[in-house]
Amino acid sequence: MSTLFDYIQWRGDLDFKQSPLNPVDHLILSQISYLPFDGIVSGPEAKEGISLHLALEKLLDRLPSSESELVMLLGFKEIPEFIKTLVSSNRFRNCQIVGFVNKVDADKEVQFSALCLYLGDGSCSVVFRGTDATFVGWKEDFNMTFREIIPAQQEAVKYLDNIASHVSGNLQLAGHSKGGNLAIYAAAFCSDKVKKRITNIYSYDAPGFHEKIIASDGFDSIKDRVRSFIPQSSIVGMMLEHGCDYQVVKSSGTGLMQHFLFTWEVSYNDLVYVDKVTLSSRFVDKTIREWIGSLDNLQREEFVETVYKILLSSEVKSVQEMEQSWLLTLGRILKSMGNIDDLTRKKTLKTIADLFRSAGRNLETLFKRH
Questions:
Q1: Could you tell me if 205 and 230 are in contact, meaning their C-beta atoms sit under 8 angstroms apart?
Q2: What pLDDT score was predicted for residue 71?
Q3: What contacts 24+ positions apart, CB below 8 Å, involve 360-365?
Q4: Which of 137, 124, 101 is closest to 29 using CA atoms?
Q5: Does residue 158 sit in the same domain as residue 215?
Q6: This prediction's pTM
Q7: How is 315-330 classified by DSSP, letter by letter?
Q8: Which of 73, 84, 103, 251 ranks highest by number of CB atoms within 10 Å?
Q9: End of a domain among 277, 298, 316?
Q10: Strand spans (E) along the chain
């Protein structure tokens, strides 16, 4: 199969005037938004940006040498190769990056990051980062199950209105995972003046919204500009309500690994599509919807808060650390469960048991073809 690495090589010598923007370009820009440009790319108020290749070269100079440290910093072992491939690509290397922000506040439970790229075709792409490896980022995602609005969404609206006053041309919004959610939300609730400049919104395997957001006039005003993509075994992108159609993309990953963009299959100027999501995706979607639907808002909040407290007290520092040492992490989590009171522990275990019961009731979904 062909991945975004192949696409960068195929299209590497063609600028955006010669070969117009397509969904693969914004998938790549969404992956770029995860890079730690802190101290390299200036903020929204700066008058000048920096070329992508210069920013990437500076980033390469300060990357750690060990693979384990690289994974902890960047999240994926493919990132160094990804950076080097972009540096050598005429299509991307001369893009100008401006307006980088990265805000993580554990007390306010907000993780927000975004940047803008001038692509040389007269347009500006505003790209929102998805959830990073911090627990506060994941906590904010789970807060969506019981909150109509989360802080990162409010930050996204403020960022878009602000950056739009500093950049010219049409605006295209994009993001992966929570970043796609933020791109849609920002477009829906930004000022009317900015909204008129938005041509397209690209969302890659992003969770949906509270029903009130879907029913709002703001969402209705931009939903025809949304292009939503999910992998064939999507889990994250099937959560909550979306209010618009999506296209299903072929992925080489298995299970949750399909969420990561390096596994998505591409062609010369588009993603590679399949007719529908897999039965396993339908099973997970139906199970989680039924489970969440059986809990009221207070129960959802209590469960999320308890799990978050357990993780914090377990001394596990990030999601990547959990992935690297599951047995050690599990031991720490089980130990930290002893720090919560009996009533809270019983409620938490019951909620987890309800999830497994929901899964059991929906097993037939794995064998039914619709």
A1: yes
A2: 59
A3: 361/290, 362/283, 362/286, 362/287, 362/290, 363/283, 365/279, 365/282, 365/283, 365/286, 365/287
A4: 124
A5: yes
A6: 0.88
A7: T---HHHHHH-HHHHH
A8: 251
A9: 277
A10: 50-51, 96-105, 110-118, 124-128, 171-176, 198-204, 226-231, 246-249, 273-274
* Same domain as 210, residue 190: yes
Q: Are residue 25 and residue 47 in the same domain, yes or no?
A: yes
Tens-digit pLDDT profile for residues 8-41:
988 888 888 888 899 999 999 999 999 999 999 9
Placement of tokens 């690209």 in the chain: 202
Residue with tokens 């500076």: 58
Calpha distance 87→300 (Å, rounded):
45
The answer to whether 252 touches 261, Cβ cutoff 8 Å, is: no
pLDDT, tens digit, 9 for 90 and up, residues 163-221: 999 888 899 999 999 999 999 999 999 999 999 999 999 999 999 998 899 999 999 99
Query: By CB neighbour count within 10 A (0-12 exposed, 13-18 middle, 19+ buried), where does 47 fall?
Result: exposed
| Pair (339, 257) in one structural domain | no
Instruction: Please give the angle made by the CA atoms of 44, 46 and 48, to the nearest 5 degrees.
Output: 115
Beta bridge partners of 103: 112
* Alpha-carbon torsion (285, 295, 332, 150), positive or negative: positive
Instruction: Please tell me the distance from the alpha carbon of residue 66 to that of residue 361, in angstroms, as a whole number.
Output: 46
Domain around 356: 284-366
Amino acid letter, 227 = R
Place of tokens 């927000």: 112
Contacts of 269 (CB under 8 A, 6+ apart): 11, 19, 22, 24
Average pLDDT of the residues of the chain: 86
| DSSP states of 135-188 | HHHHHHHHHTTT-S--HHHHHHHHHHHHHHTTS-S-EEEEEETHHHHHHHHHHH
pLDDT per position as a tens digit, 197-213: 999 999 999 999 988 99
Using CA atoms in the order 301, 302, 305, 308, what is the torsion angle rounded to 10 degrees?
Answer: -110
| C-beta of residue 86 within 8 angstroms of C-beta of residue 8 | yes
Do 314 and 219 share a domain, yes or no? no
* Identity of the residue numbered 311: L
**Cα–Cα distance for residue pair 132/175, rounded to 1 Å:** 13
Average pLDDT over residues 220-235: 94
Domain shared by 294 and 170, yes or no: no
